[in-house]
Write a structure and sequence with these properties.
The protein has 421 residues and is an alpha/beta fold. It folds into 2 domains: 159 residues, Lyase, Ornithine Decarboxylase, Chain A, domain 1 (Beta Barrel), CATH 2.40.37; 248 residues, Alanine racemase (TIM Barrel, Alpha-Beta Barrel), CATH 3.20.20.10. Helix content is 28%, strand content 25%. The N and C termini lie far apart (56 Å).
């Protein structure tokens, strides 16, 4: 569910007309619904009711500070995967004891930043990282809580570029080697083993891979406890998918996911952490763009937008589908026709959809890309020297720009020409 609905023939974000935002900030832009973000967070929180738990938003999906503060004020923790994300979370007011540091390539500088600023736990992904973290902790005179990320070799049956739990993926340590790695962790100074971490991928629309992974984690918990380790927290990752196409079958609900967690690991008495990103932020955002031209080609028509692959790269990178809808609701009886919907970037890959059925549109008309809140703005770039597009947050009948579009002068001024040129 989201809060982007047609009302009196216009698309609204909560109680604000999308066309009103476009007139104020220009196109293209992202717009997020506060009500949708909060609703989706609370669904996860309620799904784990009855178990000690912390829902940590995977901010790699959407990292604007206003969104982080909105969710943090509602009780969310944050899952960060870089020093920059850690700094963003702290700047948004998230306390260190609600921040989990994940990621396969943490640097010594990032470790020091987190240990000095406060951290809930570090999810360690390799023995070399564990040794480095131990050295940093000792140098600071602190003890850091850790989990070890285990790779359960479970096929999440998702896109190859977002699968993380198979043996050939770069993440975590093989579950078959967990006992020796945990033994090493117990010997290293400055580390306190508190639990197990697992994350098998993103955009999962079936609970079966989760169940397979979590049953392996439950078995490993018993083994590690028998070895003398204190396993009191299970970080089960995220990855629950969303319906990108309205015609798709609905993925499992957070309540179904919570019941699965209770069924597979609830008997262990552990605190549960989950790290949803896409399901909280994905359907909470639109990217809004304007038609520049409609061009007739050989056997097809092209709808050329002012939004491009640098603004929303998922279709070019993953062949991802986004529903694209007109901001002005089409009249009843208007026959749709096929368009290739493309951007202005000088790449054939700058194509959002091929032969997509759309009502006839003309230059100046607005369209909205649904389900664009996750991995949209965070993956955008300035390719072709195109400024990053604004982000807007709506709450009821209010809206605010939460990241402004830089001017060309600001963008170009970041370059420095050496004196010898």
């Amino acid at each position: 569910m989201d809060h982007f609905l047609y009302r009196d023939g216009q698309l609204f974000a909560e109680d604000v007309a999308v066309s009103e935002i476009a007139a104020a900030v220009g196109t293209p832009f992202y717009v997020y619904s506060s009500a949708t973000l909060l609703r989706h967070f609370r669904l996860f929180d309620e799904a784990l009711a009855g178990m000690p738990h912390q829902v940590c938003f995977a901010m790699k999906s959407l990292s604007n500070q206003a969104v982080l503060k909105l969710l943090g004020d509602a009780g969310a923790g944050m899952d960060v995967v870089s020093g920059g994300e850690y700094r963003r979370a702290r700047a948004a007011g998230i306390p260190g004891d609600r921040i989990v540091f994940s990621g396969v390539g943490k640097t010594v500088e990032e470790m020091r930043l987190a240990l000095e600023g406060g951290i809930r736990q570090v999810n360690v992904e390799s023995e070399p990282e564990m040794e480095a973290l131990s050295a940093v902790a000792v140098s600071l005179g602190v003890t850091v809580p850790i989990t070890v990320r285990v790779n359960p070799d479970v096929d999440a049956k998702t896109h190859a570029k977002i699968a993380t739990g198979k043996s050939e993926n770069k993440f975590g340590i093989p579950i078959s080697r967990a006992r020796e790695v945990y033994a090493m962790a117990a010997r290293l100074p400055g580390l306190r083993v508190i639990g197990i971490d697992v994350h098998i991928g993103s955009q999962l629309t079936d609970l079966a891979p989760f169940e397979a992974a979590y049953r392996k984690v439950a078995e490993l918990t018993e083994i590690l406890r028998a070895d003398g380790h204190s396993i009191e927290r299970l970080d089960l990752g995220g990855g629950l998918g969303i319906p990108y196409a309205r015609s798709n079958a609905a993925p499992p609900l957070p309540s179904d996911y919570g019941a699965l967690i209770q069924r597979t690991v609830g008997h262990l008495g552990c605190e549960i952490e989950i790290e949803p990103g896409r399901l909280i932020s994905g359907n909470a955002g639109l990217m809004v763009s304007k038609v520049i031209y409609v061009k007739s080609g050989e056997g097809r028509d092209f709808m050329i937008l002012d939004g491009a692959m640098n603004d929303l790269i998922r279709p070019a990178m993953y062949d991802a589908h986004h529903d694209i809808v007109p901001v002005i609701e089409p009249q009843v009886g208007v026959e749709p026709q096929p368009y290739d919907i493309v951007g202005p970037v000088c790449e054939s890959g700058d194509t959002f959809a091929k032969q997509r059925m759309m009502p006839p549109l003309a230059a100046g008309d607005l369209v909205a890309f649904r389900s664009a809140g996750a991995y949209g703005a965070v993956m955008s770039s300035e390719y072709n020297s195109r400024p990053l597009i604004p982000e807007v947050l709506v709450q009821g009948d209010q809206f605010a720009v939460i990241r402004a579009r830089p001017t060309f002068d600001e963008m170009i001024a970041r370059d420095t020409i050496p004196e010898w040129l």
